[in-house]
Amino acid sequence: AEQITLTFPDGAKKQVDAGTNALAIAKDISNSLAKNAVAATLNGTAIDLTAPIKQDGKITIVTKKDDLGLAVLRNTGAFLLAAAVHQSFPSYHLGEGKAQADGFFYDTDNPANGENQIAVTDLPALEKEMNAAVKDDDKIERVMMAKDELAKHFADDPYKSALVKAQAGVQIPVYKLGDFIDFGYGPLLPDTKLLKHFSLLSVAGAYWQGKSSNPMLQRIYGTAFFSAEELEEDAKRRADIKERDHRTIGRELDLFFVDPEVGAGLAYWMPKGATIRRTIERYIIDKEIANGYQHVYTPILANLNLYKQSGHWDHYKDDMFPPMDMGDGEMLELRPMNCPSHIQIYKHHIRSYRELPIRIAELGMMHRYEKSGALSGLQRVREMTLNDGHTFVAPDQIQDEFKKILTLMMDVYADFDITNYSFRLSYRDPKNTAKYFDDDAMWNKSQAMLKGAMDDLGLDYYEAEGEAAFYGPKLDVQTKTALGNDETLSTIQLDFMMPEKFHLTYVGDDGEEHRPVMIHRGIVSTMERFIAYLTEIYKGAFPTWLSPIQAEIIPVNNEMHLDYANEIKKRLLKEGVRVEVDDRNEKMGYKIRESQTQKIPYTLVVGDEEVKDSSVSVRKYGHDKAESQDLEMFIDAIVADIKNYSRT
Ligand code: ATP
Ligand code: ZN
Question: Is-cis flag, bond preceding 357, omega within 30?
């Protein structure tokens, strides 16, 4: 037979018959390599273990330990899932399916009734079907099939037909399991026995090929690993994410809701959520006033001309709600940002260099027309209230003010016990400068200035092109959501553009007019995003100072101990503690458990003993033991707790 030469990663060469496959080559090296082999690469391209190799090249055996190995396993998982769907729902159409970062998916569609799709309740049966194949170690056969024959095979399935059409070449490698045929994967495992540790997770609608103008298919998600331990670990991780999800906690603790029927991305704050929000609003306003900010109120509506002058209409229109035509020539616009409003405040008086920096702040409500697919609980909404502030400085005050804002920010983070964050310097995208305010010198100067300030402070940061605002570069403070996504909380942005556009001036010590520089900054972000974030990091167990209910008093017996409970309530209310008495006719154990599920920081049980010595039996959230404490001492402790923003 014809011979070919294969080169291994270590440089060793080997002559083999043309048409030999990677599995045979692995076996030749060692049995254990063959056992761990899941695929191969030939000259950098992934190939199946059973694919005949016909040309010289560099070969690598891909094993279970490689990232690519995991992808092969998961592609095989997707394939096996599709086979199971085909078996159980023979009339259903199949879209695409494949491995992804944390598992695999397959798109399906019931052509007879779009409302009646595969549901979560169908997943156990599909898993069983897949498991049967694994147990029998069914072989997955790789064969070449003529494109027109494949097209004929899928003639009844519009999605598969489109995928066949998109294939290059006349002979297409397909995979067979029994009479099920599929194609379009990278390499798959030659048999199913390695697919022991998989699970199907969820279903969700997904547009065909990701385009919202296409029909919606039903996507089935699953995951697979090479070991039971890894699968178990992953299940734990997913459970933790679920447990932290602010949408779930928001429902359980009755904090807020968003109802797409009433308005997608428009949040309703229930009393408890509103309490958390009000506490944060008061906190940040006080903090800012102590740091030299002047708080104002400005309208959420303004004449569209304001946003034409600011540049928003040119550069930010896609994110704005359409203007309201008032019929008499007036066009009103919902503001997407507060900057133009604060500029009006600045412009209302003649400003002197002696007043600078002027720091205007507001909990400013704004509206942005976010894509419906991007909306997520409170984390991304269409109406939001930003802890906004604009400081107007002389050019030589930029560095100093920047540092002051950073210090304020880190100070606030410490109070909220936020420790996991990183700094991102966000520049404009040099390849798409049309998106931004057009002034190269301004961009270069201000980007260098931000970088210089960060270097001066000795802080770590990374640089990201294309993340700037249209009017200038920024420093973003990046945190991670429970889902592991990067998200901006705070931001500090330099702006030489808007002062220009609005002809802002101050009178210098020379008596002449000068142009101030504007710094946009948000410390705790929007109330919406910040509370979504806090809910996730605290898992709903808010520190006492933020908790909607800080103490819950439970009388052992309503008849005998309710008076004392109410007396304590009165005392605590006087100290500004948010407290409730649970006087329902329920069992004490039940009330205590409920106080725990509501994650109330302090549960106070009062009975004979407590009435007798003016004490309380205190159970802190998350502790299983209660502790008896003198009432006055308890009051001092909870008041200190609130004052110090401590986490119990
Ligand atoms: P993103 O990149 O997250 O869309 P952005 O860069 O457009 O935000 P800015 O204009 O800097 O945001 O707005 C200030 C802050 O408001 C952001 O840092 C972010 O924390 C918050 N924010 C922005 N958009 C939303 C939204 N749709 N829902 C809730 N909060 C938001
Ligand atoms: Zn601004």
Answer: yes
Instruction: Please name which of 91, 86, 121, 89 lies closest in space to residue 203, comparing C-alpha atoms.
Output: 121
CA separation for the pair 110, 129 (Å, rounded): 19
Q: 601 and 544 in contact (C-beta within 8 Å)?
A: yes
Which atom of ligand 1 is the closest one to the Cα of 386?
Answer: 16
Q: Choose the residue to mutate in 488, 492, 498 for probing ligand 1, maximizing ligand atoms within 8 Å of C-beta.
A: 488
Report ipTM (2 d.p.): 0.97
Tell me the whole-structure pTM to 2 decimals: 0.80
- 3-state SS assignment for residue 536: helix
72 within 8 A of 188, measured Cβ to Cβ: yes
Can you tell me which atom of ligand 1 is nearest the CA of 382? Answer: 27
For residue 160, pLDDT beyond 90: yes
Distance between Cα 455 and ligand 1 center (Å): 26
The model's pLDDT over 111-159, given as tens digits with 9 standing for 90+, comes to 998 889 999 999 999 999 999 999 988 899 999 999 999 999 999 999 9
Task: Compute the distance from residue 69 Cα to the ligand 2 centre, in Å.
Answer: 48
3-state SS assignment for residue 321:
coil
User: In sequence order, what are the residues at sequence separation of 6 or more whose Cβ sits closer than 8 angstroms to the Cβ of residue 300?
Assistant: 334, 335, 364, 365, 366, 367
Distant-in-sequence, close-in-space partners of 439: CB < 8 Å, separation ≥ 6? 496, 497
Q: pLDDT band at residue 648, thresholds of 50, 70 and 90?
A: low
- What tokens were used for 185? 């994967």
Nearest-atom index, ligand 1, CA of 476:
18
Q: Which residues line ligand 1 (CB under 6 A)?
A: 368, 370, 380-381, 384, 386, 488-489, 491, 522, 525-526, 528-529
- Helix, strand, or coil (residue 329): coil
Any idea which residue has 């017996």 for tokens?
Answer: 557
Q: Which residues of 569-603 are buried (b: 16+ CB within 10 A; e: fewer)?
A: beebeeeebbbbbbeeeeeeeebbebbbebbbbbb
d(CA 469, CA 369): 17
Q: Which amino acid is at 356?
A: L
- Ligand 2 centroid to 451 CA: how many Å? 20
Taking each helix axis as running N to C, give the angle between helix 398-415 and helix 271-290, from 0 to 180 degrees, rounded to the nearest 10: 140
Rounded distance between C-alpha atoms, residue 218 and residue 208, angstroms: 9
Query: What is residue 18's three-state secondary structure?
Result: coil
The Cα 182–Cα 83 span in angstroms is 8
Q: Which ligand is nearest to the CA of 370?
A: 1
